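ok so i was messing around last nite and threw this chain in just to see what happens. nothing serious, just curious
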Amino acid sequence: MTAMTAITTMSTESEQGQMPIRSEADIVLARQQVRRLTQQLKFSLVDQTKMITAASELSRNTLIYGGGGDMLWQLVQNGLRQGLRLSFVDQGPGIADIDLALKDGWTSGGGLGMGLSGSKRLVNDFELETAPGQGTRVTITRWK
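result:
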């Protein structure tokens, strides 16, 4: 059995949700929501900061490179461990070269090139689904 098959989503509706990422203000709201969720899960301050930073970077990518999209969140459980899973989904142009996009310092715009690669280092699980012309979904999970 893989680790992914053992993970369950906590069942109440209040433990999952979706937020639009359509403006700079939405990025701030996404960070605030992630802060509330990590505090609810009683993450350490360091782990809260890592998840909020990753969410901020991925929200910004969703807005700037994906033309806007959504942040989906859910509280998850794997045995006794609890975690927070976030997905950033857009219908933008997609990423043509995933390996290049995950390389530190590479940017397709005017940023520092740390968004994807930096976010990947801040979380326990990182998944990237993309195809040119079909948008992008980045899913991250941090475990307590």
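not much to say yet. The two ends are 22 Å apart (CA to CA).
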